[in-house]
Every structure is written in structure tokens, then in C-alpha cells.
Amino acid sequence: MRMSHYYISLMVLAIGGLLATATAGVLGSPIHLTVALATAFVVVGLHSLVILFMLIASRLLREGHENCGLSPEYLQRSNRFFRERGGFFLVLAGALSIVTAGVLGYSERAFSIPSVVHLLVGLAAMGITFVAIPVELRALRKVEGLLDEARDLLDREDAERAQRGEPPVGSDHQPHRDSPKAMAAFVLIAPLMVYLYRALIVWRGDFGAVSPHPWLEISAVGLVLLLITMRGERRVASGDSR
């Protein structure tokens, strides 16, 4: 399935959920909260899918330009969605507005804000999503067509190179891999971040309530690995200097 097909499936769920949520809210139905939460997840996923696909498509076309000789025109055309702020900000507004409406669902109880504010923001969020849907769907289909065009171009070039007995374009490309030093630094730092998060955020600075194990031991392993890799790099550098 193409990405636009997944989008249409989510779109149907989002539209149905928004209409059901609005109806249940106006009627004061007890299922309003349940339907609203499920709909909020679907709507946020709907808008997030568009942004994620645009980023992935741009990355694919950038790789094609840098490693396969693809014209930079394809990358420029794929980035048009982000340059045209209307569409991009409309997608962000659709996702943020539905989250805001959900938070304001407790406005009367938690923030002493009249419940009518929640109603108005919810209706506004629904309207923004309805306006954003055709914009997002057109953008998805444009980028899908762009990827198809780039793929067909590279396939034709690979076929021509195969006839000449040459390897495919970009076959000699070596993907980037994190260095052992970077991986060791991650093993060193990440457990400490988890420990600090639990102590400072979860337990609000009460370090006595948080055990340093196994975070300390994992970080110690990372420190050992980091020292080993740094020592190996120094050996290689000294060998090269000779």
C-alpha cells in the first residue's frame, strides 16, 4: 500500500471520530471522553504521518542526489511543502489544536475555565483538521509521484549501465556507521541520564529514593569501552605518524 492509502484510512477514522466526539459532547453523553481520547490519538497520528513521510521522502531524495547522481531539482521539489509555510503550519496547527482541546476538557475542573471554552476550541480543532485534510492529501500524492519519478529514472539508468556491464549507480556507497568511540560514549552517558531523570523528575530531587543500580554499572562498562577505544585511536595515530 502507498502512504496515501494509509492516510485515507486514518482520515476516515479521524472524520468519524471528530463528528462522534462533537455530537457526544453537545448531547452530554458519557461516552464523550472515551471517544474524544481515541479520536485525539488518531488525529495526531494523521497529521504526524504527513510530516514523517515528507521528512523520509526528503532524506531518500537527498541520498539519491548525493550518492546516485539524482538531479537536485527532485530534492527542491520535495522540500516545497516545508518552504510553503501555509501547508506545514496547517498540519502543526491541526495536531496541536486537538491536543489543546483535550487538555481543556478538564478546564472547568482544573483551571476554573468555563466549559464553553473547551467546546469552542474543540470545534476549532475539528475545523482546522477538516481544512488540513485536502492539503495534506495533495502533498502526499505529489511527493509519492516525485518518488516514483525518481525511482523510474534511476531504474532506467541502472538498466543502461547493466547493458554496458557497469554496476548500478551508488553501488560503491558505504553507509555511515557510528564509531566505536561514539557507541561507548552513549553507553556511558545514557544510563546516567536515566538515573538523573528518575531522581530529579520522578522523585523531585530525592536521590535517596532512587537506586544507582544498575545504571552505575552500565556506565562503568561504557567508560571502560571508551578508554579502550581512545587508546586504540592513539595507537593508530602514532602508527600513522611513524
Number of separate structural domains:
2
Give me the Rg, rounded.
26 Å
The helix/strand series, from N terminus to C terminus, equals: HHHHHHHHH
Q: Biggest sheet, open or closed, and with what strands and sense?
A: none
Identify the overall geometry. flat
Q: How much strand content do the residues show?
A: under 5%
Helix run count: 9
| Helix vs. strand class | mainly alpha
Number of strands: 0
Distance between the termini: 57 Å
- Helix share bin: over 70%
- Average pLDDT, to the nearest integer? 84
Ranges where pLDDT stays below 50 over 5 or more residues in a row are none
What features would you describe in this structure?
The protein has helices spanning 3-27, 32-68, 72-78, 80-83, 85-103, 107-111, 115-163, 180-202, 215-241. It has 242 residues and is mainly α. The protein has two domains: 3-163; 180-241. Helix 2 packs antiparallel against helix 3. It is flat, with a radius of gyration of 26 Å. The termini are far apart.
Short description:
The protein has 242 residues and is an all-alpha fold. It contains nine helices and no strands.
Structural features:
single chain; 242 residues; 2 domains; 9 helices; mainly alpha; 0% strand
Break the fold down into its secondary structure elements and pairings.
Layout: H1 3-27, H2 32-68, H3 72-78, H4 80-83, H5 85-103, H6 107-111, H7 115-163, H8 180-202, H9 215-241
Helix pairs in contact: 1-2, 1-7, 2-3, 2-5, 2-7, 5-7, 8-9
